[in-house]
Amino acid sequence: MKMNGRTRLFMIVSFTHLFFLVIVLVKFKKKAIALLLSTLGFTYLFEYGVLNLLRMYRYKPKIFRNPWVDNVFGAFLSQAYFVPIKAVFITLFQYGWKMKIALALLLAAIEETFVKKGAFVKRTWKTPFTFFGVLFYFWFVDQWWRGFRSSKKKIIMIISLYLSNVVQYANVLFFLFSFTKAIRFRFPYRTSRSDTRDQFIVAPLYALLASVFSTAIILRSKRSNKIIGIGLLAIIDQILIRLGLLKLYKQQPLILLAIHVLTLLIGGYKHSLFLNVQKELKNEEIG
Fold first, then answer.
1. Beta strand 246-248 pairing with 183-185
2. Are strands 57-59 and 120-122 parallel, antiparallel or unpaired?
């Protein structure tokens, strides 16, 4: 089957960024994973505002038939892959403003190429927003990484864990919806928007809410606390079903429960990872 030109463009850029990802993973290992996981959530919050709510632009990678699913998948590639990987690359290699400006210009140039090929449609968005926004994000990731070894490292770790859980919930719910429609979120009343757009407005809010509880449970190490926490998340799901915000099909409550359990298991690993990296950074300073 012949690949669509827009899809090919996204794939080329994806493979190009794989080069940056491999370099930082080989060189920095746990540090690269920790920094990537701890800062992804900020790009997701940004994208939720400008794409899901304000619709300032639209991605058209032509991978999914549903336009909104295709749109959000394009955002996933951009905000969970293209931009964060470059930020981690810059921060861990301790590059200065020349490299930051160069890579920000590169991303702005890529955006313009996407626009010309019809893979990215701007409504109220402007390319200078991309350049300065990316530049700010590169600077912000630098500061966040410094926070990992500062006196505020505990709160930095907790926020990082919370946002990484938000990303995990959001991604799992997105791909489940894209391929199965097993778990659907909606408003309890009819809106002028499509059901798919309502899904991508409500589902991230659910990820933000569920992550509050999952993060609190992870930070409580006792097994009894985790069991109680899972029960609490299940109760919250039932309340949302009663309110008409959440709709599950057949045995899907078990799938949602499995998502909660998986989030807690992976979250425990992320918690240990963040603590270990912070300890390693502290030892480097002492040494």
1. antiparallel
2. antiparallel
